[in-house]
Amino acid sequence: RGKDEKYKVRMPKLRTVREYKDKRKSIDEVERTIFKFKKSSEEKSKKMEKEEKIFRETFQYDKEIRVLSRATAECSVPSQRRVDLPLTAGEQLDVIDAVQGHAVICRNAQGRYGYVLVEHLNFR
């Protein structure tokens, strides 16, 4: 018997059906989370386009939208009019255009546009 065991070829253990299904489930879950991410970014881009369209109609803005600088809101300010942008303290804003004397057109992180008084902004 000692000689027979010595020359016996060991076969590798094959995966069972259950192990294969478990591994496949984990791969499918990863793929699903990737697709969810893409879907949310797609929805976000559609929302940004919609906000830009509303902005162009409201402000009658036909120029190219370019970010002139970035600013931080110093204090929270609710909007008085529809064209004003409501602010929260510490919010990052993109300055699009300086149209009126003490106001600039800004865009927030959600893609909304509106007038903001320069005295509420901190340019660094």
| Count of helical stretches | 2
Radius of gyration: 29 Å
Mean pLDDT: 78
The CATH class, by name, is Mainly Beta
Plain-language structure description:
The protein has 124 residues and is of the alpha+beta class. It has a single domain (22-122), classed as SH3 Domains (SH3 type barrels). Helices cover 39% and strands 19% of the residues. The chain contains 2 helices and 5 strands. The protein has helices spanning 2-6, 17-59; strands spanning 69-73, 92-97, 103-107, 113-117, 121-123. A 5-stranded antiparallel β-sheet has the order 4-3-2-1-5. The longest helix has 43 residues, at 17-59. The radius of gyration is 29 Å and the shape is elongated. It starts with a helix and ends with a strand. The mean pLDDT is 78.
Question: SSE layout and pairings?
Answer:
Elements: H1 2-6, H2 17-59, E1 69-73, E2 92-97, E3 103-107, E4 113-117, E5 121-123
Antiparallel strand pairs: 1-2, 1-5, 2-3, 3-4
Protein name: FYB2 protein
GO biological process, one term: protein localization to plasma membrane
Pfam family, one: hSH3
Distinctive features:
124 residues, alpha+beta, SH3 type barrels, five-stranded antiparallel beta sheet, 2 helices, 39% helix
Q: Brief description of this entry?
A:
The protein has 124 residues and is α+β, with helices and mostly antiparallel strands.
